[in-house]
């Protein structure tokens, strides 16, 4: 009987993973929440700040500018989002300017979603 009680107590301590859609809405409307849910230095690509020899760019927490992705104008941009169990990738591609791409990757870490990668490409 004591084994059953220990199992039941231990099992109840596991929290459900955070819902991505709830996280995403808050991430794009709350500046301090956004900053708290980014793994800094944030790895990615930022062609405006990179030389042709650079292969990776790192955003620093102190230099981060709040950047919400609001509703996407689908007449000017293609928007896609891909859901996997612990990874969500979103991409915004300009229909008019080839080479203008914005991509973000979010990972579920210890039950919470975090932005772990960002690419801001303007070729």
UniProtKB/TrEMBL annotation:
Highest rank taxon of the organism: Bacteria
Family annotation (Gene3D superfamilies): 3.10.450.410
Name of the molecule in the record: DUF4348 domain-containing protein
């Amino acid at each position: 009987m004591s084994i059953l009680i220990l199992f039941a107590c231990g099992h109840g301590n596991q929290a459900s993973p955070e819902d991505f859609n709830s996280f995403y809405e808050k991430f794009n409307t709350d500046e301090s929440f956004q900053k708290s849910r980014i793994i800094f230095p944030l790895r990615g690509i930022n062609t405006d700040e990179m030389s042709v020899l650079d292969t990776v760019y790192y955003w620093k927490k102190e230099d981060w500018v709040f950047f919400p992705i609001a509703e996407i104008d689908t007449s000017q941009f293609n928007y896609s989002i891909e859901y996997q169990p612990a990874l969500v990738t979103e991409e915004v591609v300009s229909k008019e300017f080839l080479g203008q791409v914005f991509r973000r990757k979010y990972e579920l870490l210890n039950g919470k979603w975090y932005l772990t990668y960002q690419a801001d490409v303007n070729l």
